[in-house]
Amino acid sequence: MVVYNLAIVCRDQGQYEEAEQLDRRALEGLEEKLGPKHPDTLRTVQNLAIDYRNQGRYDKAEQLCQRTLEGREEKLGTKHPDTLRTVQNLAIIYRSQGRYKDAEQLCRQALEGREEKLGLRHPETLETASDLARIYRSQGQYEEAERLFRRALEGREEKLGPKHPDTLGTVDGLA
């Protein structure tokens, strides 16, 4: 668990290669002790996918994210918050690759699931709304992007306050 937590700290500090090494080390141990489909193993696979995404290594990130998604759908179902987080992460990978239609489809799926499970004003729902807005903006669908950015901004100001980094990121997206 220490290795896992240290990887999170490295990732949060932008030390993606070091986070990758730590996540790979944690993954080896978890696969050996708990098996490849255990929730803790899948969480580490997801974190490794994020490490690769942050490094611009999208093919590897996509493979690991797909593996996580398959395992989480099998173990947790399609509407579980962890599964929906993986769907959203895969959408972000697709957006980074310029695969906007694929990204849009997955992000909509994640948004609908989060609205249903967590509610319209939950921070994770608002995060997904912002991600979908970015996808729309990338496709030139500015009215739809603005609508979602405004929705996310209103909710984040209410839940997190006007100076929170997530709120300010939404302001930046809207601008």
Automatic annotation (TrEMBL):
<keyword id="KW-0175">Coiled coil</keyword>
<dbReference type="InterPro" id="IPR019734">
    <property type="entry name" value="TPR_rpt"/>
</dbReference>
<dbReference type="GO" id="GO:0005874">
    <property type="term" value="C:microtubule"/>
</dbReference>
<feature type="repeat" description="TPR">
    <location>
        <begin position="126"/>
        <end position="159"/>
    </location>
</feature>
<dbReference type="GO" id="GO:0007018">
    <property type="term" value="P:microtubule-based movement"/>
</dbReference>
<comment type="similarity">
    <text>Belongs to the kinesin light chain family.</text>
</comment>
<dbReference type="InterPro" id="IPR002151">
    <property type="entry name" value="Kinesin_light"/>
</dbReference>
<keyword id="KW-0206">Cytoskeleton</keyword>
<protein>
    <recommendedName>
        <fullName>Kinesin light chain</fullName>
    </recommendedName>
</protein>
<feature type="region of interest" description="Disordered">
    <location>
        <begin position="156"/>
        <end position="175"/>
    </location>
</feature>
<dbReference type="GO" id="GO:0005737">
    <property type="term" value="C:cytoplasm"/>
</dbReference>
<keyword id="KW-0802">TPR repeat</keyword>
<feature type="compositionally biased region" description="Basic and acidic residues">
    <location>
        <begin position="156"/>
        <end position="166"/>
    </location>
</feature>
<dbReference type="Pfam" id="PF13424">
    <property type="entry name" value="TPR_12"/>
</dbReference>
<keyword id="KW-0677">Repeat</keyword>
<keyword id="KW-0505">Motor protein</keyword>
<dbReference type="GO" id="GO:0019894">
    <property type="term" value="F:kinesin binding"/>
</dbReference>
<keyword id="KW-0493">Microtubule</keyword>
<dbReference type="InterPro" id="IPR011990">
    <property type="entry name" value="TPR-like_helical_dom_sf"/>
</dbReference>
<dbReference type="GO" id="GO:0005871">
    <property type="term" value="C:kinesin complex"/>
</dbReference>
<keyword id="KW-0963">Cytoplasm</keyword>
